[in-house]
Amino acid sequence: MKYNFDEIIDRKSTASMKWEKYKGKDIIPMWVADMDFKAPPAILKTLGHRIEHGILGYTITPQALNDIIIKKLSVLYNWKIKKEWIIWVPGVVCGLNAVCDAFGDQKEKIITTTPIYPPFLDVPANCGKPLVTVPMVNKNQRATLDFDRLEKEFKNNASLFIFCSPYNPCGTVFTKTEINRIVEMCAEYDVVICSDEIHSDFVLDDNKRHIPTASVSKLSAQQTITLMAPSKTYNIPGLGCSFAIIPDRKLRQKYQNRLKGLIPHVNLLGLLAAQTAYEECDEWLSQLIAYLKKNRDIVFDRVNRMKGCKLNPIESTYLAWIDVRDTGLKDPVLFFEQAGVGLSDGIFFGQKGFVRLNFGCPRSLLNKGLDRMETALLDV
Ligand SMILES: Cc1ncc(COP(=O)(O)O)c(C=O)c1O
Q1: Which of 34, 92, 167, 263 to mutate to test the pocket of ligand 1 (most atoms within 8 A of CB)?
Q2: Is 117 in the pocket of ligand 1 (CB under 6 A)?
Q3: Under a CB-based contact definition with an 8 Å cutoff, are residues 249 and 237 in contact?
Q4: Residue 66 C-alpha to ligand 1 middle, in angstroms?
Q5: I need a surface site. Which of 120, 291, 305, 353 has the fewest CB within 10 A?
Q6: Same structural domain, 197 and 275
């Protein structure tokens, strides 16, 4: 079956976070990371049947769902996990906050890198712990970790490293060497790693592959909490469904204690959608990736030809992290909004002079947005 990612679906009046922001305005929303594609038909069918059944009661995690995740991680990454390592939570950000709260005392530092998905910058404040940010470095047109600076910070009373792999917003897919290095450093200074791998299914560079942080060695398994979800991949983020994988018993216990009584179970529809996604939607996903690769090529080519804009090759995600410093624009987001395109402001990711463009949308809409940006920049 050929899936139609070109279809334009009207999301106005659906209380969509992405589209409501510019309600009544001729601004194409290309900011928050959800895609303007329908979820896979198999998921919609499952949800439809369940709604028709009519009783939406308390639900337990289906055994088949954990089984399919165990199988999937083994097939994709040769990562052998056990059922009891999987802990379901209604969102990766929720899991991230629980981790930050559960690990380290109030004086110990939480380390992350910038630019970064904005909630990473909020979580330490949410739990009253100090945050230290280490800027990524650009090497050969690729954003990567600054190991020397990270090591300095790990040494200095740090308890936790919150890591995004693959990397939102820069799109980096980390190599085994890079992951091993970060793992060894964290082990040396007794720093727990929380590895947010929500974008792991979106590797767009054919020469790269995602490697789960916890899968590289025994050492990494012992000190890593992995956060994953079907939400980005199958465009079901509104269903609030994600899971942590924690091989180490002590870490797992701490995390679970933090969830108790405060964090609700994943809802029925989220669990059902996740199970169908992993059981029945491989073909949909491979067609989606092929579509996104073409969108990525268009964005890369067109943005790099726009006056004052620079974009590194995008290894993963459906997000383009655009360097607009050479445009001289004081407020690039406002400028592009006035041109009819709504982008995310780099400031919220901890890096001024950049904007993030979401290309997870039908190609005609993408080209329309890029046309608007290009035309507006001609007058700068
Ligand atoms: C790196 C990263 N983590 C987490 C999330 C959100 O996850 P959730 O909706 O499950 O809280 C996003 C969404 O854009 C993301 O990019």
Answers
A1: 92
A2: yes
A3: no
A4: 21
A5: 305
A6: yes
Residues 345 and 374 in one domain: yes
| CATH code where residue 117 lies | 3.40.640.10
Structural domain span for residue 113: 63-280
- Asked if 272 and 289 sit in the same domain, the reply is no
Count of domains forming the chain: 2
What's 325's DSSP letter?
G
277 and 233 Cβ atoms separated by less than 8 Å: yes
Helices 63-77, 268-280: inter-axial angle, 10-degree rounding: 40
CA of residue 328 to ligand 1 center, whole Å: 31
| Each residue's pLDDT expressed in tens, for the chain with a length of 380 residues | 999 999 999 999 899 999 999 999 999 999 999 999 999 999 999 999 999 999 999 999 999 999 999 999 999 999 999 999 999 999 999 999 999 999 999 999 999 999 999 999 998 889 999 999 999 999 999 999 999 999 999 999 999 999 999 999 999 999 999 999 999 999 999 999 999 999 999 999 999 999 999 999 999 999 999 999 999 999 999 999 999 999 999 999 999 999 999 999 999 999 999 999 999 999 999 999 999 999 999 999 999 999 999 999 999 999 999 999 999 999 999 999 999 999 999 999 999 999 999 999 999 999 999 999 999 999 99
How far, in Å, from the CA of 240 to the mean position of ligand 1? Answer: 10
93 lines ligand 1 (CB under 6 A): yes
Site of tokens 């560079």 = 205
Do 68 and 160 belong to one domain?
yes
